[in-house]
Amino acid sequence: MAAGLRCGSSTIKYLLFFFNFIFSLFGLAILVLGILGCTKSINTSDLSNLRNSFIVLCIVGGAIFVIAFCGCCGAVRESNCLLVTFAVLLLTIIVCEVVLAIVIFVNLSSIDDGVAAVFNDALKNKNAASMESVDFVQGSFQCCGLKDASFWGSNQLPNSCCSDGANCTPKNAYTDGCANAFSKLIKQLGKSLGAVAIALAVVEVIGVWFALALAGEIKRLGR
To answer: How far apart are CA 219 and CA 18, in angstroms?
Structure first.
């Protein structure tokens, strides 16, 4: 069927296939990232918003993979219906990604309060569940206390405050407080998400244009 396509349309066909193949891998990567985040995130209500963001990542990643696969099939089979469907779904995904970016931004900005709640609960109750959450945060982000090690008000600190994980004192503890560590993380994520969002939007708009251009050519040929 491709023999009837003009040279430019044939080029678009293969570019669209390549674009969707890469896009499907990208969607699969987002899906895996979301799954890993869900399985490794802390099981505590104070940081439940972070887990919810990973769940949204799973949904969006899966949707991207399915839609990209649809685009691949539409390009290979030269199906006007599949290509138009792909373009409409891709536009829908762009809208969903904007919503996702807003959700993640809002949740990230509220994580500081969640971290403070986790630490204050651990200091007040000192039960196994609260300390497990604190140990996870301190070990993962190499930080100690909310502002610094003095938060614990003792010379004997939780082992997660030190890299060697034993006999932890203020002298060998991490110097960065966990509130500051999370602020740095949020800023880094904000820059990374912004750059990725812009690049992704450009690629997606090009994908929509390719799909509609190829669909128009196929319709012209009466297929």
So the answer is: 22
Within-domain flag for 84: no
Q: Distance between CA atoms of 205 and 166, rounded to whole angstroms? A: 53
Whether the CB-CB separation of 84 and 92 falls below 8 Å is answered with no
DSSP E strand stretches across 22-179: none
The residue range of the domain holding 69 is: 7-77
Residue 36 has φ and ψ, to the nearest 5°, of -65, -40
- Whether 54 and 151 share a structural domain: no
Residue whose entry in the numeric block shows the structure tokens 């690049």: 199
For residues 98 and 72, state if they share a domain.
no
pTM for the whole thing?
A: 0.56
pLDDT, average across residues 52-73: 84
Q: Is residue 144 a contact partner of residue 173, using CB atoms and an 8 Å limit?
A: yes
- Pair (214, 154) in one structural domain: yes
Same structural domain for residues 159 and 194? Answer: yes
Residues 208, 214, 218, 220, CA torsion sign: positive
**49 pLDDT band (50/70/90 cuts)?**
low
Q: Would residue 215 count as lying in a domain?
A: yes
Q: What is the pLDDT of residues 51-62, one digit of tens each?
A: 777 788 888 888
Round to whole Å and give the CA distance between 163 and 177. 14
